[in-house]
Amino acid sequence: MSKLADFHVSVAACLTAQALNIGYAPVVKAGTPALERGRLSHVVQNYLSAETYTLANGPLIDEQGKIGFAQALGGGLVAAIDGMRFVVPVPSIYTRPSKKFFGRSRGITWLNMINDRGVDLGSKVVNGTVRDSLHMIDVAFRRDGGLRPEVLVTDTGSYSDVVFGLVHLLGMQYRPALADIPDQKGWRIQDAGYGSLSRFARGKIDLERIKRHWSDILRVVVSIYTGEIRAYDVMRMIQRDGNPTPARGGDRPLRADLQDPPHPHPCRGGALPA
What is the pLDDT of residues 210-254, one digit of tens each? Predict the structure, then answer.
């Protein structure tokens, strides 16, 4: 393919139009080849995609991490993940209805991760307003660039008991900012007094159950870590309507549940590794 003259000018115009959400009419300039409507349309359709944005964001993350002020803010190992809801005004199969957030319209959730250096490490667009906890771990492990955080901070929407356990087993610290602590349920191993936290720590961890399924637990964790399966698929397979399935609560092996998922092709690379 022949090289486009003044390609950088066309890209800059398209990025400006998208960043300012003004459309392409203000940046089109008849008589200037790099700014003709046909050229801009060609650049947008062939060069500006989600994949190219992701690849371009990696070097930007690395460069911002070298700035002295950014380094003074933190070490880049603490990150916060949160979701923002947006109404989508045009028909799309990727939107979902929600009276609470979108009224009569339909919308999406943009789940974003930013570290303590003010760097946007990655994001994920989620259909509608499903709980952020289903996708939070995938955002942390499928970054555009930068170091993998050692500490994750989220709000209540990204919290669940399963997420807490998976984050710990994946080698990160989880520090959710929980709302309405008395209504939340914490877990303990020993029958000890926790003072004012006794109502919160009312759940009891069954160590024997963990021992029975430990090999399968490690298998799932390694599969998420290596990218063989998405954490989202794991969450959907071991929960039903937000509650643990019998596979988690009974003696049925977890592996049997993973081999018979509720929806096809959960693994990006095929079956989970043995």
Answer: 999 899 889 989 999 988 888 888 888 876 544 544 444 444 433
CB environment 110-137: b (16+ within 10 A), e (fewer): ebbbebbbebbbbbbebebbbbbbbbbb
Residue whose entry in the numeric block shows the structure tokens 């709000």: 155
Q: How far apart are CA 184 and CA 199, in angstroms?
A: 9
Q: Where are the beta strands (DSSP E) in 70-178?
A: 78-87, 96-97, 106-115, 120-127, 151-154, 173-174
Q: How far is CA 248 from the centre of its chain?
A: 24
Q: Which residue has the tokens 């667009």?
A: 125
Type of residue found at 87: V
14, two tokens: 């398209």
- Tell me how far apart the alpha carbons of residues 224 and 137 are, in angstroms, rounded to a whole number: 9
Give me 75's structure tokens.
């070490």
CB atoms within 10 A of CB 264: 5
